[in-house]
Design a protein that fits this description.
The complex is a heterodimer of chains A (449) and B (331).
Chain A lengths: L1 H12 L2 H8 L2 E2 L7 H20 L8 E3 L11 E3 H11 L4 H28 L8 H23 L4 H15 L5 H9 L8 H32 L14 E6 H26 L5 H4 L18 H9 L5 E3 L2 E4 L2 H27 L15 H20 L2 H8 L3 H49 L1
Antiparallel strand pairs in A: 1-4, 2-3, 5-6
Helix pairs in contact in A: 3-5, 3-10, 5-6, 5-10, 6-9, 6-13, 7-8, 7-13, 12-13, 12-14, 14-16
Chain B lengths: L1 H11 L1 H6 L17 H26 L6 H25 L7 E4 L6 H15 L5 H20 L25 E2 L17 E5 L11 E5 L19 E5 L11 E3 L11 E3 L6 E3 L5 E4 L8 E2 L1 E3 L5 E3 L24
Helix pairs in contact in B: 1-3, 3-4
């Protein structure tokens, strides 16, 4: 039976040698290698739940009056987009489960990608010959941020609108071309033409998912063609031979188990933990706003950056060279992207190490990289935290102005301090390693004697 | 239940059993632990339970009279998927717990093939005598065809139509109305709160439409020069759209104890740009780069609030042309 199936396939595709090799492909075993897999499986859940949602969502800004199941919104004027999102939450069986699971999966997806990237960074997995894999991963991360933003923006609830107004302002703020770019994308001054909604929709459900899936395939093909990295091993020369569990039968049930486990957690969250209750936010109108509004977590760093910039537009004569939102909304993410993308080459320049690396560093083994990474990500994390200053003000009563001033100082001072502290800690840990190794060797020698 | 315990026991004692390695088989063959009935039973039980949980999901889906349906659906589908995950992981950790094997890393490069590719391309290239000219012609084709492919994207929006960014629906004489279209009477405007106003009979769905309306003590006003008559009776109107990032300036900071509290301020909830209504909406804190544009007001003989002109400057977030001219009306 199995023989006949394989025979059928091989005679028509010639895939048997490839298949055999794939089945015995070796996966090094380390828990931190699963982070990328979690992201992959979250993406699968996103596609599945997303397809379900498209069957009910109407991407239209045409106005209608609500007469549905949710009493507090009775008689309110709203767009078809918002109404269909509320309806699929209340009137479609399993609709709310799918919507909430989709939203949770998006949050987990980005989180898994970010933690995966941190692992890659701090273990030096991005080094030659894997720079391309790393760059494609970064590109996916930034595509996914845009994908998530469009996803919650097209629902046309109050938070959607507030987020879009900010996005429009950031587009407007780009020097020399901002006004033209915003007019091109929105078709008219904000809130733009109704076509903007269908543009967001097709980008969210078709263009970007296809792009992400394509990048994902290239990412995985590159990983497989250069093979996984691994931590130092004793048994073999780890630069030449990779040690691990073969994909079939050893690795397959574990990885599939992780897939079902990820899906299980996401559906449990989607069913039991409320997220983005759009019926509470209400429909959007540009004259409305609410206090303590927050985007999905993965845009928090941009909100923080927009908040920390002091009050100024760069104006020369009557020409506005740099409107304020440019710094936090456009330049800041661009700097983060460029620094991360250039890092493999910066590191080569600094260390003079142009060699191949299949073996991972422990963070302490590369004090310079670890110190830079710790400082850099502290910088981004502090700006992220600054984005929550309004929540701390609203719920804890901490003075907003004081908080912002503290953050303005911290984002300059803390990364530098963290850099030096981390470098010192790494060097101390290395010194301890040497002592431990010597002691171990001496003990063994003593035991033998 | 007993079977499950047996399986669990088998799972826990597995590490020891693995020590007894069998003979090294050929490299293509996996080294697997000896058969384990307990583990098999555990997998079977977990899979059966998963099937049951899946059926429970269908049951809750089909019965609509159950309250908290979403929670039950999420719980059952989550448990079903979780049990499948557990079955697979038990499988991977017991019956299919393969020994590590090794594999060579692929060679760093293929110098021979690299050379062949180089030669192939060079030989092909040597067919051409006027390379420079060909390259120029190719470049021209790429430029022209590329432009032709990209040009239709300009249909998305009026790339050069930035003049509409200055438009507002306000004109001298327009009455201020509330969200339901009722005109504001000057006498209705109280101190210590704020109102949202729109132009009567005009579109409300554009950035230039909404106003915040507040009343302050006329003696406390420190408006910029030339705006002396803009706030009859201390009533001030500003664009409600933040000059930083286009959110609605939806918060009004009212001193609860004026002796020590900061002065009244209009605040945008998005990035906390804070404006002083007494000083022409000067920026007190936050990222906004310029004040909220002010709309001059007048009170007609019936006591209605009316616009006495257009805004003091362009409405909304800044762009390269913000300071090039003042606001206008759509033509």
């Amino acid at each position: 039976m199995i023989r006949r199936g394989v025979q059928f396939l091989d005679r028509r595709s010639g895939a048997a040698p490839f298949l055999r090799k794939t089945l015995r492909y070796v996966f090094p075993d380390h828990w931190s290698f699963l982070l990328g897999e979690v992201a992959l499986y979250a993406f699968i859940v996103l596609v599945a739940t997303g397809i379900y949602l498209t069957l009910f969502f109407e991407p239209s800004l045409a106005k209608t009056v609500y007469h549905g199941q949710y009493a507090p919104l009775q008689g309110r004027e709203m767009s078809h987009a918002y109404k269909s999102a509320v309806d699929l939450s209340f009137s479609v069986k399993a609709g709310l489960l799918m919507r909430q699971t989709h939203h949770w999966a998006a949050n987990v997806f980005v989180a898994a990608i970010v933690i995966h990237m941190l692992r890659i960074f701090f273990t030096g997995a991005f080094r030659k010959p894997r720079e391309l894999t790393y760059l494609i991963g970064l590109l996916m991360l930034f595509t996914v941020l845009l994908e998530g933003y469009l996803g919650y923006s097209m629902v046309d609830d109050l938070l959607s609108g507030m987020g879009l107004a900010i996005g429009y302002s950031v587009a407007l703020s780009i020097p020399f071309v901002g006004g033209n770019l915003a007019m091109l994308l929105w078709g008219a001054p904000y809130p733009g033409t109704d076509a903007f909604e269908s543009r967001m929709y097709i980008t969210h459900v078709f263009i970007l998912p296809i792009l992400i899936a394509t990048l994902l395939v290239v990412h995985l093909v590159l990983v497989a063609s250069r093979h996984h990295t691994q931590f130092k091993r004793k048994r073999v020369n780890p630069e030449r031979k990779v040690l691990g569990i073969a994909s079939f039968p050893g690795q397959a049930p574990r990885s599939l188990g992780l897939m079902f486990g990820t899906a299980a957690v996401l559906f449990l969250l989607g069913g039991l933990v409320q997220i983005n209750p759009i019926w509470l936010w209400g429909p959007y109108h540009l004259a409305d706003g609410t206090n303590g509004a927050q985007p999905d977590w993965y845009l928090g760093w941009l909100i923080g950056a927009l908040r920390l910039v002091p009050s100024f537009d760069v104006v020369i004569g009557n020409y506005t060279l740099v409107p304020n939102p440019f710094w936090g909304g456009a330049l800041f993410p661009l700097v983060v992207l460029v620094v991360l993308a250039a890092w493999p080459w910066i590191e080569k320049r600094v260390t003079g190490d142009h060699g191949y690396h299949n073996v991972l560093d422990r963070p302490r083994d590369a004090p310079g990289r670890t110190a830079f990474g710790a400082g850099f990500f502290t910088w981004v994390a502090l700006i992220f935290l600054a984005g929550s200053a309004d929540r701390a003000y609203v719920s804890l009563g901490w003075s907003y102005v004081t908080q912002i001033w503290i953050y303005r100082v911290l984002v300059i001072v803390a990364p530098v301090a963290i850099f030096f502290v981390t470098r010192r800690v790494c060097r101390e840990l290395q010194a301890i390693d040497v002592v431990e190794r010597d002691r171990h060797e001496a003990e063994e020698a003593a035991a033998r004697a | 239940m007993r079977k499950l315990l047996v399986a669990l026991f088998g799972f826990l004692t597995l590490r020891k059993r693995r020590e007894r390695r069998r003979e090294q088989p050929p490299p293509e063959q996996p080294v697997l632990p000896p058969p384990d009935r307990g583990a098999e039973n555990a997998v079977i039980v977990l899979l059966l339970l998963a099937g049951l949980a899946g059926a429970a999901f269908v049951f809750f889906y089909a019965t609509s009279s159950i309250p908290h349906q979403t929670q039950w659906l999420g719980l059952t589908i989550g448990i079903a998927l979780g049990l499948v995950a557990a079955a697979l992981i038990v499988l991977g950790r017991t019956l299919l717990n393969e020994e590590e094997s090794e594999e060579d890393y692929p060679p760093h490069e293929h110098p021979e093939e690299q050379e062949q590719i180089e030669e192939l391309v060079e030989r092909t290239g040597s067919r051409f005598t006027r390379k420079g000219l060909l390259k120029a012609a190719g470049g021209a084709a790429a430029l022209g065809v590329g432009a032709a492919l990209v040009a239709p994207a300009a249909s998305l929006g009026p790339v050069t139509g930035t003049n509409s960014l200055y438009d507002t629906p306000w004109r001298r004489g327009l009455r201020l109305v509330d969200v339901r279209g009722r005109p504001f009477l000057a006498d209705d405007i109280e101190e210590g709160t704020f109102y949202t106003a729109f132009p009567e009979g005009a579109s409300r769905d554009e950035l230039g439409a909404p106003l915040v309306l507040v009343r302050l003590d006329p003696k406390a006003l420190r408006l910029p020069a030339g705006r002396g008559s803009w706030a009859p009776g201390g009533i001030l109107a500003y664009s409600k759209i933040c000059t930083h990032a286009a959110c609605a300036v939806a918060l009004y900071r009212k001193p609860t104890f004026p002796a020590i509290d900061p002065r009244p301020a209009l605040v945008c909830p998005c990035h906390y740009s804070t404006f002083d209504p007494a000083q022409g909406a000067k920026v007190l804190f936050g990222p906004a780069g310029r004040p909220l544009p002010q709309l001059p007001l007048e009170i007609d003989p019936q006591g209605n609030l009316r616009a006495a002109g257009n805004f003091s400057g362009p409405v909304g977030p800044a762009w390269w042309g913000t300071h090039l001219r003042g606001p206008g009306n759509p033509s």
